[in-house]
Each structure stands twice: as structure tokens, then as C-alpha cells.
């Protein structure tokens, strides 16, 4: 099942399928689409898996093995790719909290987010080649953007699986967090992003005309939140 929790501007989507190591089935795809619909308007979005063993272990092979034609395979790939595209295009910051291993389609799901935070004992890899297939949910293209063409081809072409520290070194993971404090720390980061300025910062970083960027700044400048924060800073000044 897919759980959605929304509080104080932060929407958290959790894939909770312990029997399948949080693998994605066709029904999971439907639930993810519904959760994204409900999360619209959130100031930040977090994606995670239940437990500590798997973030997402890829597609649910037990179910997806029933897809035997090229048309069926293409339909499934396009379905999940559209969900990853929705995540990548979400207007607010998106954090993937890698509570466990992110392999195959799970790695593709992770790179659809803006930011990846990982527990220090997880592994990540685009290892679809082990099944004689390739990434098809948009992850290959996003991997190139994150680590560069040659390194992305090496990783996805060989199926190499990386530790969290190794993935951080090449920019695939943004921050590695000790397992003992992982749940607390990723939530702290996600909550800090659940602010109007972070949403506007993401919009500007995506590329908007200068006038739009300045207009966004001006709206924030005259907001009550800005003046309250400014007053706190001024009161601390000597």
C-alpha cells in the first residue's frame, strides 16, 4: 500500500509493501498517482519506504512477470515513467529519503526527486542489466544529469551497485546520514524545505525570466513571515 501523510505543509508518501521489499506493482502505481494528486499544494514532498531494508526494490517481478508482450511492457514502462515525471515536475522541493536499498526501478524512483538523503548502510544501483533489461522509467536520463554521461553509462551499463558513501562522492546521493539518526534527520531537512521560499527558489532554479524571479523575491519581501524573521534578526543585533 501507499501511505500519504500531510502536516505543516510537508507531504510524505511512503511505500509500505514489506512482503515485496517495497517493490512497485501496477496497483502501487495507481496509488502513487492518487497520492500525488492529494499532495498537490504541499510546500515540500518526501518519498520513502517502510522499514529499514528497502526504499524501493524495483518493480514487483512476481506481478510484472505476467506482462509477456512488447505492448504490455511498453504500457507498464510508460505508466511508471509518467509517475516519475510527475515527481520530477512537482512544483515544490521533493526529497527521497532512502531508508533502505534503492535498486533497479527503485534507483529510478529516487532520482526523480530533487534531493536524495540516505542512511549510511544502504546501497543504490541501476542494476536492471542483471535481468537483461534497461532503465525505462526516466532514470537513465536523470542519472546522466546527476553524474555525467560516461559515469552514468558505466553504472547503468554494468549494473554496478554503490554504497551510500560512494554514491555521495559522485553526486548520486546528496547527504549520507548515520542510521541511528536517519529518521529524525531526514524529516528535519524535509520540514525545513516546507517553506514558501524553498518552493519559490525551486521555481526560479528551473528557469524563469528575470522579471519573474524579481517579482517572486518582492512578494516574499513584503510578507509577514519576512518581517517577523527580520525583526528577530534585528533584535539580536548589537
Task: Give structural notes.
Could possibly oxidize fatty acids using specific components. Belongs to the enoyl-CoA hydratase/isomerase family. It is an enzyme of class 4 (lyase). With 238 residues, the chain is α/β, with parallel strands linked by helices. The protein has two domains: 2-192, 2-enoyl-CoA Hydratase, Chain A, domain 1 (Alpha-Beta Complex); 208-235. The chain is built from eleven helices and ten strands. It has helices at 26-39, 61-64, 70-88, 105-111, 139-147, 149-158, 164-169, 182-193, 196-205, 210-221, 224-236; strands spanning 2-7, 10-15, 44-49, 54-56, 94-98, 101-103, 115-119, 123-125, 161-163, 175-177. A six-stranded mixed β-sheet has the order 1-2-3-5-7-10, with helices on both faces. Strand 2 (10-15), helix 1 and strand 3 form a beta-alpha-beta unit. Helix 5 packs across helix 6 (149-158). The radius of gyration is 19 Å and the shape is globular.
Record keyword descriptors for this entry.
238 residues, alpha/beta, 2 domains, six-stranded mixed sheet, four-stranded mixed sheet, 11 helices, 10 strands, globular, isomerase, ClpP/crotonase-like_dom_sf, lyase, Enoyl-CoA hydratase/isomerase, isomerase activity
Amino acid at each position: 500500500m501507499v501511505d500519504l501523510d500531510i502536516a505543516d505543509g510537508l507531504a510524505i508518501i511512503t511505500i509500505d509493501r514489506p512482503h515485496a521489499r517495497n517493490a512497485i506493482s501496477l496497483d502501487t502505481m495507481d496509488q502513487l498517482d492518487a497520492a500525488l494528486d492529494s499532495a498537490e499544494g504541499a510546500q515540500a514532498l518526501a518519498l520513502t519506504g517502510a522499514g529499514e531494508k528497502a526504499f524501493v526494490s524495483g518493480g514487483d517481478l512476481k506481478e510484472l512477470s505476467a506482462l509477456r508482450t512488447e505492448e504490455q511492457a511498453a504500457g507498464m514502462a510508460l505508466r511508471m515513467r509518467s509517475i516519475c515525471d510527475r515527481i520530477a515536475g512537482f512544483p515544490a522541493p521533493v526529497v527521497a529519503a532512502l531508508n533502505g536499498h534503492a535498486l533497479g526501478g527503485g534507483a529510478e524512483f529516487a532520482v526523480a526527486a530533487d534531493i536524495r538523503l540516505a542512511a549510511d548502510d544502504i546501497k543504490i544501483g541501476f542494476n536492471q542489466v542483471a535481468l537483461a533489461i534497461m532503465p525505462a522509467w526516466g532514470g537513465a536520463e536523470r542519472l546522466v544529469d546527476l553524474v555525467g554521461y560516461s559515469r552514468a553509462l558505466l553504472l547503468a551499463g554494468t549494473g554496478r551497485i554503490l554504497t551510500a558513501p560512494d554514491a555521495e562522492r559522485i553526486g548520486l546521493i546528496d547527504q549520507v546520514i548515520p542510521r541511528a539518526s536517519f529518521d529524525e534527520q531526514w524529516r528535519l531537512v524535509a520540514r525545513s524545505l516546507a517553506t514558501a521560499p524553498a518552493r519559490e527558489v525551486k521555481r526560479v532554479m528551473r528557469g524563469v525570466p528575470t522579471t519573474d524571479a524579481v517579482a517572486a523575491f518582492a512578494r516574499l519581501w513584503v510578507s509577514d513571515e519576512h518581517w517577523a524573521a527580520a525583526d528577530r534578526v534585528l533584535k539580536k543585533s548589537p
